[in-house]
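To whoever is on call:

I kicked off a structure prediction for a single chain this morning and the downstream step that reads the tokens threw a length-mismatch warning. I double-checked the sequence; it's 85 residues and nothing unusual in it as far as I can see. Pasting both halves so you can look.
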Amino acid sequence: MTFDDDFVQIGRVRTPLKQLGLEWPPPAFIRIDNHGALPDLLVKRVRYSEITDEERSGMTHVRRGAEYVTCSAADLPHDEPQEHM
């Protein structure tokens, strides 16, 4: 289950998961399509909240988040799916 305030943070940018069309838990890797203007950006999840949906549903002032950092294609395991944005 994805709550309205679940978010991802890439660098200094924090965005709600739902705004990106993603579900909780967020994917391990995200490829951000720059539509040819710049090379695509590949990011990997380095940490995320371990609060379960059941725990979160009872909390009114807690948000779950996932932090991402840039990475290269060499960091991808060959069987790891990527989310494209």
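Update from on-call: the warning came from a stale cache, not from the record. Cleared it. Sanity check on the structure: The chain has a mean pLDDT of 90.
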